[in-house]
Specification:
Elements (H helix, E strand, L loop, with lengths): L19 H12 L9 H11 L9 H14 L2 H25 L5 H7 L1 H20 L10
Amino acid sequence: MNCLDLTVRQNDSMYKRWLVIPWSVYLLSFLVPVANLDGLGWQLFCLGIESMLMLCPAWLANPLFWLASYYFWKGEIRKAAKLGAVSVGLGVSFWAWVWLAMPEPDWFKLIVYLIPYWVWLASLSSFSLMAWLIAPRSSASNAM
């Protein structure tokens, strides 16, 4: 076994402990202050729910992340990795929505002020990366 072989073995539940990293970062994103505004990340979370009414799919990355975490916990790592990758894609779709929905967005303010968004996206990305690194390599026995 080399040091980069992180694949899950039968009856090995140690990998479940890795969920602490992305979930800690995810929960931290709720507590990070929004720069130059009087609010915290959880308020952006609530705004995200409202933004779905404006056809912004980025918030849907949250339930996908939750579902991916569930599959990861059950040991279905490949399914979790795929859902994690889709959740990152949905999270990044926020920028396409901004570009299409706002006539002249102030890109600097959006990038700098939305620190909780970047922490949230880091949690989704770290989960996806972790799941892909841990996922078994054989595709025949672990197909989705």
